[in-house]
Specification:
The structure is a single chain. It contains 11 helices and 11 strands. By secondary structure, the protein is of the alpha/beta class. It is globular and about 60 Å long. The two termini are about 15 Å apart.
Length: about 325
């Protein structure tokens, strides 16, 4: 079996699905072509594909922050999925993928084939577009790492590491994150490291005092998050499922979270997979204190978070789910 993928696919966003197809089918099981796709398919942050031996088995995935139902996905695809799905879209047939995040493909050959296919598709007229997409892939390769690096490690109840991006345009994302940072800083006996990532341009004054001392490379970031007693999640830009939530599940973290408002492939339950709070200072303080001292509860959240990831979000699980839906 082989899967045919359109070259316009945005690799940084589709990387977990591509990695899953490569794991299940082998790197040679992924082929790029424009044949069989809508002639004007150029939508950003999406992925279109079909089974080579059954061109009618078409799939479409949206990775956009907003829960938009794409016309091509609705009209062309047999299976239409999205990372961000509201309940109305879910009821209309758009299936929630879950909080996927960017990873570096384990097969350099598959990455190279993706870039080459992008240039063939773009041609001379689209050279600027192809160059920009190549730059995005190169930056993704530098900043991300392979899925195998996302492994749970023992947590330290007296240490918390948390780094978040300070949003200027989407400032509503910042206050819950700032409250968590402040709660960690005031928690007695807790060593906190991190804060809001320093921006190279245009600092956000509202959170400048809560800035991290520096930026962290992906490997160091994962090691420190892994050691952290707790993680923190809140709805990101446009209320989306941020990459952090998927990373925390993959790392098996006990995560303090504001309510998740987007549809999921399976529930993330309070007290089972997450510790859900209303975002108030008292609720966050109490959550940090409980997860630091109630080791059995923290361990239960860690184990169940990783189990949820393995069942619903791991690349091979994503690929098998999509292939199963395509073959119905």
């Amino acid at each position: 079996m082989r899967i045919v993928v359109h070259p316009a696919t945005d690799l940084p966003y589709a990387s977990m699905v591509l990695e899953g197809f490569a794991q299940v089918l082998g790197a040679g099981g992924v082929r790029y072509s424009t044949a069989g796709f809508p002639s004007r398919y150029r939508i950003g942050r999406t992925m279109a594909f079909y089974l080579e031996d059954d061109p009618g088995a078409r799939g479409f995935v949206s990775f956009t922050d907003q829960p938009i139902v794409h016309p091509i996905g609705r009209a062309w695809a047999r299976v239409h999925c999205a990372v961000n799905v509201d309940e109305d879209a879910a009821d209309s047939g758009v299936l929630p993928l879950g909080p996927a995040f960017g990873v570096r493909l384990r097969s350099p050959a598959l990455t190279a084939r993706h870039v080459a296919a992008t240039w063939r598709w773009a041609g001379v007229r689209g050279a600027r577009d192809a160059l920009e997409r190549t730059r995005l892939v190169a930056r993704h390769e530098r900043r991300r790492t392979v899925i195998d690096a996302y492994r749970p490690v023992a947590s330290d109840p007296d240490y918390v590491f948390y780094v978040a991006w300070p949003w200027a345009k989407h400032a509503e994302v910042n206050p819950p994150r700032a409250e968590f940072v402040e709660a960690c800083r005031r928690a007695p006996g807790l060593t906190f490291e991190g804060g809001f990532a320093p921006r190279r341009r245009a600092d956000v004054p509202e959170v400048l005092e809560l800035s991290a001392p520096r930026r962290y490379g992906i490997r160091e970031y994962l090691a420190r998050v892994g050691r952290s007693a707790v993680a923190f999640n809140n709805p990101a830009v446009h209320g989306c499922l941020g990459w952090k939530l998927g990373e925390f599940l993959a790392l098996g973290k006990a995560t303090i979270s504001l309510p998740v408002t987007r549809a999921l492939p399976a529930p993330l339950e309070h007290g089972v997979h997450l510790h859900v709070v209303d975002g108030s200072p008292g609720a966050i303080d109490d959550a940090i204190a409980r997860l630091r001292t109630d080791h059995r509860y923290r361990r239960s959240l860690e184990v169940n978070a990783r189990r949820w990831y393995e069942e619903h979000l791991a690349p091979a699980a994503l690929a098998r789910r999509l292939l199963g839906l395509l073959q119905r």
